[in-house]
Design a protein that fits this description.
This protein has one domain (about 5-175): Glutaredoxin, CATH 3.40.30.10. It contains seven helices and nine strands, in the order αβββααβαβαββββαα. The protein has helices at about 5-15, 60-70, 70-75, 90-100, 115-120, 160-170, 185-189; strands at about 25-30, 35-40, 45-50, 80-85, 110, 125, 130, 135-140, 145-150. A seven-stranded mixed sheet has the order 2-1-5-4-3-8-9. A two-stranded antiparallel ribbon has the order 6-7. The longest helix is centred in the C-terminal third of the chain and has 13 residues, at about 160-170. The chain is globular.
């Protein structure tokens, strides 16, 4: 029998750009209520799915606030935002009530207490029991088109996420530092 290392096992289950986004069903806190979220319900729309380590931490609220501030901009680009952590929906509710920066969040804050969703997207940290800071841009067909995982100490940029979304939606070849409204490489030829 051949020995398979942990790294090999993880790489075999790792989602990649071009793969179908793993489906999930979970409870989320959104607009003052608990509701069931199914990833499949977002088919036909672009999705910004981001994972963060934990509620009641330091960098995480800045990210949730940033995505909340840009919520209407994402919506104007026909994109939905979904956040996920390994906290419960009750912890999400308590956090939004305790931290005024989070009181206006309109996108779902998904509970992933057992880490199943985080594992499906290969961002679960077995040592801490938290999700890593992962971001996925999923197209209307449910295909992962962009993904990035960063160190817990570094917050993501909503500006960069919007730039990437616009680039993917352009359908063109977008060079380094391309910005929405600029020519793509295939349109400049």
């Amino acid at each position: 029998m051949r020995h398979i290392s942990k790294v090999q096992r993880e790489s075999e289950i790792m989602v990649m750009v071009g793969d179908a986004a793993p489906d999930f069903v979970s409870t989320a806190y959104q607009d003052g209520e608990f509701r069931q979220i199914k990833m499949g319900d977002f088919r036909g729309k672009w999705v910004i799915l981001f994972f963060y380590p934990a509620d009641f931490t330091f960098v995480c609220p800045t990210e949730l606030e940033g995505f909340s501030e840009d919520f209407e901009t994402f919506r104007s680009k026909e994109a939905e935002i979904i956040s996920v952590s390994t906290d419960t929906e009750y912890t999400h509710m308590a956090w939004t009530k305790a931290d005024k920066r989070l009181s206006g969040i309109r996108y779902p804050m998904v509970a992933d207490r057992k880490g199943d969703i985080s594992r499906a997207y290969n961002v679960y940290n077995e040592k801490t029991g938290n999700a890593m800071r992962g971001l996925f841009v999923i197209d209307p067909d449910g295909v992962i088109r962009y993904m990035v995982v960063t160190d817990d100490a570094v917050g993501r940029s909503t500006e960069e996420t919007l730039r990437v979304l616009a680039a993917l939606q352009s359908g063109g070849l977008c060079p380094v530092n391309w910005k929405e409204g600029e020519q793509t490489l295939n349109s400049a030829v």
